Amino acid sequence: MGRNEGNRPFQIFSRNLALAPHRAVLLSFSSRRRPPGSGLLSVSESMNAREEWLALRKKGVGGSDAAAALGQSPYTTALELYYDKIGEQVPRDIDADGLERTDFGRALEGVVASRYAHVYSVHLRRRNQIIRHARYPFMLASVDRTIDGMKAGLEIKTVDQFAYKLSGLWGEPESDEVPPHYLLQCAHYMACLDYAVWYLAALVGGHRMVRYVIERDRELEQMLIDGECLFWTHVETREPPPLDYEHPHAIGLLRRLYTGTNGGTINLPEDVYHWHRVRMDAEEHVKSYQAASDAARAHILHAMGEAAIGRLPNGGAYKRKTVHRPAYHVEDCDYTTLTYSRPKADTQEKDA
């Protein structure tokens, strides 16, 4: 299904963007004169080229930043991105697997580009510049490839085979059904380069290349620009954007921001008591559902006895198998906990 049929790009912003009040911000950005020569920022090809590139990216919002700036990244909150841009990067937990995936993705980029050029009979060009948007100079683009003879570019991704099949974020090849953060990245590049289409080549499972076609959508682009302008205003004014408390990385970010305690005691504001009650209520529901799930599991295990496979009337099946887990050593570490102590008058807690 095409994008317009399902109105998909607008659905992904329904929770986070309400940008109409910020049109004045847009006018202030669009009225600024672009510095001479700011259309292209050259990146040297020396040994320090990547460090130079990373430093330049801090001076604006890049394509891979677009989703985070709009609160749509599954990996990074807008607040984390803000701290990165102002040079106060919050320490991240080291994800060895993630770093390895990134390194492999970078190493395979040229291979996928060569394969794409061969399959689609095009000539790809690698750009060694960071490109500024002509009207909004904080919008930067460092693209994988552009396609000679066309106002088009190419973004290259390496994708785990199971994530591709099971995430529900990837549609049929040749459609524009890609994960929202990739859609926004391509829309950002089209806005910066004034291109009509951006192709996305995904290497799935290391052995299959599929292509997606993302055409320029002016309404989506304006929403993107609105969001990035608002985010960059936070950076310029050193006013942090609000934290998205529902983001899967919110608690991890707060743990890294506040790594210890000062030993002090404070009186929490009234609205925090509301969130305390929400937490207590949610945890009671979790316990109730967990108990129901455990009871259902017990019924199934009892019915199976020592059988390895138990088939259900609908064609599904449960499997039992013995798994050996070797011993392992956990390194010493420090971490901060959050616990709750009930007030002495426990009846007040129940009646509140």
User: What is the number of independent domains?
Assistant: 2
Output the strand order for the largest sheet: 2-5-6-7-8
Specify the number of helices: 13
Largest sheet: 5 strands, mixed
CATH class of the largest domain: Alpha Beta
- The name CATH uses for the topology of the largest domain is Lambda Exonuclease, Chain A
Shape: globular
What integer is the average pLDDT? 82
Distance from first to last alpha carbon? 50 Å
Oligomer: single chain
Secondary-structure arrangement, i.e. CATH architecture of the largest domain: Alpha-Beta Complex
Low-confidence stretches: 1-38, 42-47
Rg on CA atoms, Å: 25 Å
> How much helical structure, as a percent, in the residues?
40-55%
Structural class by helix and strand composition:
alpha+beta
Q: Count every beta strand, where a strand is a DSSP E run of 2 or more residues.
A: 10
Q: Could you tell me the strand content as a percent range? A: 5-15%
Q: What series of H and E elements makes up the topology?
A: HHHEHHHHEEEEEHHEEHHHEEH
Folded structure, characterized:
The chain is an alpha+beta fold and 352 residues long. The protein has two domains: 3-252, Lambda Exonuclease, Chain A; 269-314. Helix content is 43%, strand content 12%. The chain has 13 helices and ten strands. It has helices spanning 3-6, 8-11, 23-30, 49-57, 66-69, 78-85, 96-120, 161-166, 180-193, 218-237, 250-257, 270-304, 346-351, and strands at 40-42, 124-125, 129-132, 140-141, 145-147, 152-159, 197-204, 208-215, 309-311, 317-319. It has a five-stranded mixed beta sheet. The protein has a three-stranded antiparallel beta sheet with strand order 1-3-4, sandwiched between helices. Helix 3 (23-30) packs across helix 10, helix 6 packs across helix 10 and helix 9 (180-193) packs across helix 10. It is globular.
